[in-house]
Amino acid sequence: MRVAFQGEPGAYSEQAVFEYFGEVETVPCESFDVMFDSVASGKSDAALAPIENSLAGSIHQNYDLLLRHSLHITGEYFLRVRHCLIANHGVKKEELKKAISHPQALGQCAGYLHSCGIKAEQVYDTAGSVKMLKESGARDTAAIASKRAAKLYGMQILEEGIEDNAENYTRFLAVQREPVAPQGNAKTSIVFTLKNVPGSLFKAMSVFALRDIDLTKIESRPLAGKPWEYLFYIDFLGSINEEPAKRALDHLGEYAIMLRVLGSYPRFIP
Amino acid sequence: MRVAFQGEPGAYSEQAVFEYFGEVETVPCESFDVMFDSVASGKSDAALAPIENSLAGSIHQNYDLLLRHSLHITGEYFLRVRHCLIANHGVKKEELKKAISHPQALGQCAGYLHSCGIKAEQVYDTAGSVKMLKESGARDTAAIASKRAAKLYGMQILEEGIEDNAENYTRFLAVQREPVAPQGNAKTSIVFTLKNVPGSLFKAMSVFALRDIDLTKIESRPLAGKPWEYLFYIDFLGSINEEPAKRALDHLGEYAIMLRVLGSYPRFIP
């Protein structure tokens, strides 16, 4: 099985691929577009796309790509983002003067670095910082990246989980060419648009509330170039193979200008 | 007036400060935390915080900071993100072999660069790429950054608006220590939490629907460490100084575990 992800080898997304799919072949892609194309064209069997981060929010671009392609969500995975302090072999923490990584990773470890008296220096990529550090052989410098990146470049992990906020999760969606038919504990993701008149969303939500269907996500997004229409993302518990969800979506179809089921899939249980 | 923003001089956020506040003194901050502290402590009179981008989604971290501080939203601004191709003086577009910038900016101009036969090379910052280019004096290289960054470093703009997707907007919120009392066309931003039982959000939304109050944003966010509670962000048209909004919030208070008004402020009219 070949699974596409966005980023360089050793990226957090690649780590998520191994944790979710097991021992598969990974296909690094330079952008989300390339990653979706890789699945659509058959070059990859699946992609694992980050869709929201607990600190940074939803990644609209991947919703756009789901709408543009005829692909299906077949699963979800929550990755706890655990940053590692990585150094060349034999280096001790006391020797460190600076740490290099992507600005976002440095920012998420700012308190830790400050308490250790280590200066932060920005580079463009987390996994890339490990590669750079290995090539330089520097003993006063650490990289901040995933466990996977340390393993890939055969480097030493001095400390794991150095992020200041432990509640740093990224939710990924598995995307494939064929839908799955989940049984039992399932989740369904839909996208729809409504006329922007007062109460329209309220009506739309009544189709779920009247059937005691539990929503796990709702998000509105103004439609580019159409200031009077909104796009809504909703995730709810249940599968489109079950009667209540089927009826709710039929009912929603009466109000929605556009309605698309992105997929029903097994719910992630930590 | 001193206005804090996150980033280096020449960042898109600084451009937004000048467009929204006019000719003020800007205070560059290395992180969103530092930016909020700058206003809370009185070092700055206001901050302009990015809260959502049309392609990248909401920036949850700034919602977290709004909740942590007793500050008020006093206005909003939408910045159209227009990337510029920037070069040293006298350089012609035909001489260019590569472009340097932040990975996100390079990604948003990937189609343009490809069509011009220009290779992309990642650096950590948009404004920083202009500074680097100036220092190197290179004639085969361009930087991709804001108009403001080109002006700041006295560099030449070869082309403006080179992003592939023209619908690239960032919404900013002005944040100050004292609330404003808007008259007329106002917007109000609130945050609240609900028990995660089926239909709870439906009830919460009824307080607006029953009063014909129009929502312009709704977003759910699972609460870190509390899997059965959700945080909701809602923006609606109207001011808390008006009767219908006052009554709706009173009514919402009956269901919500926590409810906080982040501010009522004049709605941005493009």
Verbal overview:
- The structure is a homodimer of 270-residue chains.
- The first copy, chain A, contains 9 helices and 15 strands.
- With 270 residues, chain A is α/β, with parallel strands linked by helices.
- Chain A has 3 domains: 89 residues, Periplasmic binding protein-like II (D-Maltodextrin-Binding Protein, domain 2, 3-Layer(aba) Sandwich), CATH 3.40.190.10; 77 residues, Periplasmic binding protein-like II (D-Maltodextrin-Binding Protein, domain 2, 3-Layer(aba) Sandwich); 81 residues, ACT domain (Alpha-Beta Plaits), CATH 3.30.70.260.
- In chain A, the strands form 3 sheets. In chain A, strands 1, 2, 3, 4, 5 and 11 form a 6-stranded mixed β-sheet that branches. The first copy, chain A, has a 5-stranded mixed β-sheet with strand order 8-7-9-6-10, sandwiched between helices. A 4-stranded antiparallel β-sheet of chain A has the order 13-14-12-15, with helices on one face.
- In chain A, helix 8 runs antiparallel to helix 9.
- The longest helix of chain A has 11 residues.
- The two termini of chain A are 24 Å apart.
- The relative contact order of chain A is 0.17.
For this entry, give a set of tags:
37% strand; 270 residues; D-Maltodextrin-Binding Protein, domain 2; elongated; 6-stranded mixed β-sheet; alpha/beta; homodimer; Alpha-Beta Plaits
Please sum up the structure shown.
2 copies of one chain form a homodimer. By secondary structure, chain A is of the alpha/beta class.
Q: Could you state the CATH homologous superfamily of the largest domain in chain A?
A: Periplasmic binding protein-like II
CATH architectural grouping of the largest domain in chain A: 3-Layer(aba) Sandwich
Helix/strand structural class of chain A: alpha/beta
Count of the domains of chain A: 3
Number of separate helices of chain A: 9
Strand content of chain A: 35-45%
The largest interface is: A-B, 45 and 45 residues
